[in-house]
Amino acid sequence: MSRIHRFTGEASNMNWEHAVHRAYDRDGVVGARGSVMISPADGAQHFLFRYYHVLPGGNTMLEDHAHDHGVMVLHGHATVRLGEETHEVGPQDIVYISPWEVHQFHAVGNEPFGFLCVIPNKDMLAKLLAAAN
Amino acid sequence: MSRIHRFTGEASNMNWEHAVHRAYDRDGVVGARGSVMISPADGAQHFLFRYYHVLPGGNTMLEDHAHDHGVMVLHGHATVRLGEETHEVGPQDIVYISPWEVHQFHAVGNEPFGFLCVIPNKDMLAKLLAAAN
Hints:
The structure is a homodimer of 133-residue chains. The first copy, chain A, has 133 residues and is mostly beta strands. Helix content of chain A is 8%, strand content 47%. Chain A contains one helix and ten strands; from the N terminus they run E-E-E-E-E-E-E-E-E-E-H. The first copy, chain A, has one helix spanning 122-132; strands spanning 3-5, 20-22, 30-36, 47-59, 69-75, 77-82, 85-89, 94-97, 103-108, 113-120. A six-stranded antiparallel sheet of chain A has the order 2-3-4-10-5-8. In chain A, strands 7-6-9 form a three-stranded antiparallel sheet, with no helix packed on it. In chain A, a hairpin with a 2-residue loop joins strand 6 (77-82) and strand 7 (85-89). The longest helix of chain A is centred in the last third of the chain and has 11 residues, at 122-132. Chains A and B meet through strand 1, strand 5, strand 8, strand 10 and helix 1 of A and strand 1, strand 5, strand 8, strand 10 and helix 1 of B.
């Protein structure tokens, strides 16, 4: 079914109706948490919409994996590691993170860093991989 | 490859590095245009990031199709038709539009309406459909 997730948050602390909050307690993560907006709970089979909030000085996990990410910065500033390179990003910048690219965000400055992170649905990826084999 | 699309636009007229602009001349469309940011040109196989800009009083196409959409309003206000229902949406609202849902946006108010529209890659959808048959 289609569904609207109305914005209910603030400019540097975003939230939406029906968002599911996650602790994001993973190795090396500092001061970060996540939410899931569009998900299979909406009937979405192909992708998820997630929001990550990183406190000043905090960071996401250093990781690489088979799925890619589409990121749009919603507030604040960060450095993003992409493989061996590091770049600064700010509001409305869009980052495509390809499969198996090592990546990590570090919030910089005095404001929380927040971004939309689109990820393909894992079940969908599993079907694609099965079809390719 | 990973790629950053830096924001180069304005609050109500957004643009990004490496964005590909489209006329969006389709049946019934009024005062709207589109851009593609994340695409196969980035190596993205699973989804696309697109931006649509609708002038005050304008609208997108009334349509339904096999793929779904993930939408985040970036500026302005609109009504969105979802099947037989119509809702008002504004900045930061997120809309999941399920497959085969009839949908259309009408910009309301005096400001242009702009939104991020995520769509699964058609080639990926074709593979999924082939795997399902």
